[in-house]
Amino acid sequence: KLFWGGRGMFVFRPGFAKFYPNAASSDASTDLSGGIVNYPSLIADGSVVLVEGSLLANLKTKGTRSGIGTGGGKLFLVVARNASMNDMVAIFQQLGATDALNLDGGGSVALYDGGYKVGPGRSLPNAVIIK
Hints:
The protein is built from 1 helix and 10 strands, in the order βββββββαβββ. It has 131 residues and is mostly beta strands. The longest helix has 11 residues, at 85-95.
């Protein structure tokens, strides 16, 4: 049972991903090949769920942002510079995402594809790895 109220969660099972805008309401307890929880949720079932007024101060400014989303059978990993949370929503919508979750920002952002495309600004203890 997860108690991360107000945080979104992607759950990955063989062949598909499912998004829960509130991790505490998930039924994700078996057959998982991966999962990620973070804050804030951006889009759920095609609707914007970001509540900008409830964001922590560090999330209200523009900066280097990252996020993960799905839509149309695709998985999207986004890294954006000088972006706000609303900018991230717009980017995911333009890509066709129906579900999207903010990941970390600032010096924690890196994008690697045979070499670093962005970052890292420091040593990173976590990673999202797509195989």
